């Protein structure tokens, strides 16, 4: 059996992010044992539109809570709307109370 590719490993973690919570590209990379690969996590989020089951990519923000990937959603406001629908407050493209809403991904064992 072939191990899952990097994007699939990212998606497995992103699907675990609880509704109303956020995590960062870097936190996902660290959970995968690839701490220097946060940019690759971003590429995975950009490609997530075609993944099945769906990926809640709107819950992944940069390390200070900024919606840096918002343009990948096809609309400059869709990412914010999706987060706000889950009760997350956004001001000036940034998650309010980021430290409280931050979800630390568990270390991925590759299964």
TrEMBL record:
The molecular function terms in GO held by this entry are: methyltransferase activity
State the encoding gene: ogt2
Superkingdom per UniProt: Bacteria
Looking up CDD domains in the UniProt record yields:
ATase
Tell me which residues make up the Methylated-DNA-[protein]-cysteine S-methyltransferase DNA binding domain: 5-88
Q: Which GO terms describe its biological process?
A: methylation
This protein's species is Parapedobacter defluvii
Which protein are we looking at? Methylated-DNA--protein-cysteine methyltransferase
Q: What span is annotated as the signal peptide, if there is one?
A: none
Q: Which keywords appear in this protein's UniProt record, sorted alphabetically?
A: DNA damage, Methyltransferase, Transferase
């Amino acid at each position: 059996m072939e191990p899952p590719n990097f994007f699939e490993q990212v998606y497995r973690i992103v699907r675990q992010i609880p509704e109303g919570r956020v995590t960062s590209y870097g936190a996902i990379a660290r959970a995968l044992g690839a701490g220097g690969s946060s940019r690759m996590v971003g590429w995975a989020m950009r490609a997530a539109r075609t993944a099945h089951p769906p990926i809640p990519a709107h819950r992944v923000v940069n390390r200070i809570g900024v919606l840096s990937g918002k343009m990948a959603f096809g609309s400059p406001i869709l990412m914010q709307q999706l987060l706000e629908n889950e009760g997350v407050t956004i001001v000036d493209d940034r998650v309010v109370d980021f430290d409280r809403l931050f979800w630390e991904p568990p270390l991925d064992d590759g299964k």
